[in-house]
Amino acid sequence: MIKYYYIIHYSNGETKNSFEEYGDDNFEGTFSSYEDAKDAAEYSISCFFQGGEILHLSNPGDYDAPDENEEIWYEIQELEVED
């Protein structure tokens, strides 16, 4: 059976995958379709920007506003798992 997971790449060189966000126990970070993985990756990216904006609005002296020009991209990978 094919499952999918995402890897998010940040412009500073860091990466984060769906296993890190959802946990890797029992393949919780996998998705049954490419579209589900894509939707989850896009949601995670939107949360990144929203979280930065909330931190900035809460305490602008400590947190800079998020850079909307920051390049963040994702890739979807296939994973073969046994039934």
How would you describe what is shown here?
With 83 residues, the protein is an alpha+beta fold. The radius of gyration is 15 Å and the shape is elongated. A hairpin with a 4-residue loop joins β1 (2-10) and β2 (15-17). The N and C termini lie close together (6 Å). It has a 3-stranded antiparallel beta sheet with strand order 2-1-3. Helix content is 36%, strand content 25%. The longest helix has 25 residues, at 34-58.
Strand proportion, as a percent range, falls in 25-35%
Rg on CA atoms, Å? 15 Å
Quantity of strands, as a count: 3
Q: Which range best describes the helical content: under 10%, 10-25%, 25-40%, 40-55%, 55-70% or over 70%?
A: 25-40%
Main beta sheet strand tally, sense and closure: 3 strands, antiparallel
Shape: elongated
Give the N-to-C terminal Cα separation.
Answer: 6 Å
What does the average pLDDT come to?
86
Which segments are poorly predicted (pLDDT under 50) over 5 or more consecutive residues?
A: none
Secondary-structure element order, N to C: EEHHE
Strand order of the largest sheet: 2-1-3
| Structural class category | alpha+beta
* Count of alpha and pi helical runs: 2
